[in-house]
C-alpha cells in the first residue's frame, strides 16, 4: 500500500496525524505531490518529515517560489514564503532543506502512474479544477484517453480538493463512499486534496492510499487550533489561521 499526499503547507499537526494513521494502516511508501511548505508555521519540522519519509517529493509552486524567489502569490502567501525561506536559512546545516528542495523534480513517471503537483499540461502551476464547471468537466473526461498517453493514472495536488475523474464521470468522495476500484488500464485523474490546508469546506486533512486497484480517499481530524496559534505566534496573517477552521 502506498500513500499519496500533497500540500502539507508546513502544518505539523496535520502531517503528524496523517503519518501516524498511515503507519497504523500499514503504508509502505509515501509519495508527495509538492507544497511541503508555504502558509504554515512549521517549515523546518515538516521539511524534516518529508526528507526522511517520502520516496518521491515533487516541486510544488511554493517550493519553486522558495528556491527562486519568483512567484505570483497574494500578499499573505508571499509573506509566508519569505518567512519560510528565512526560517530554513537560519536552520541551515551540512544538508539543508533548501538544497533538498532545489533538487525536487516537477513530475515523476512511475510505470502507469504520473505524479504532478498541478496537471499534465503544467505540472507545477496549472490547476485541475474542472469539477467546478460541468461543461469543462465533460471536456476533461472526453480527453482522458487522448491525453493520458504512456500512463494510466495521474495523481495531482495543488487544488486542495479531492476528487476522481474517469471516462465514466467525476466522483467526489464523501464519508459514505471513499473507496473506488481503478481497473488496470483505466484512465483516471486523481486529485488527493490537501493534508495541511483543505479547501473543500471540510477542515479534515485529505490524502489517498492506493493498494493494487483499490483507491481510498481519507479524511482525518487534527488539532487545527494548535496550528492556528502557531501561525499567529510567528506573525503570519490571521486569515491563514482562520481558514483552517472552515476548510476554505
Describe the overall structure.
- By secondary structure, the protein is α/β, with parallel strands linked by helices.
- The chain has one domain (about 1-245): Purple Acid Phosphatase, chain A, domain 2, CATH 3.60.21.10.
- The chain is about 35% helix and about 20% strand.
- The protein has 8 helices and 12 strands.
- It has a 6-stranded mixed sheet with strand order 3-2-1-11-12-9. A 6-stranded mixed sheet has the order 4-5-6-10-7-8, covered by helices on one side.
- A hairpin with a 2-residue loop joins strand 7 (about 160-165) and strand 8.
- Helix 3 packs across helix 4 (about 75-90).
- The radius of gyration is 17 Å and the shape is globular.
- About 45% of the residues are buried.
- The model has no long low-confidence stretch (mean pLDDT about 95).
Name of the top-level CATH class: Alpha Beta
| Biggest sheet record | 6 strands, mixed
> Can you tell me the CATH topology?
Purple Acid Phosphatase, chain A, domain 2
Number of domains in the coordinates?
A: 1
Structural class: alpha/beta
Going across the biggest sheet, name each strand in turn: 3-2-1-11-12-9
The CATH fourth-level homologous superfamily: Metallo-dependent phosphatases
Please indicate the percent range of residues in DSSP E strands (runs of 2 or more): 15-25%
Following the backbone from N to C, one meets helices and strands in this order, namely EHEHEHHHEEHEEEEEEEHH
What does the radius of gyration come to? 17 Å
Query: Strand tally, please?
Result: 12
The gross shape turns out to be globular
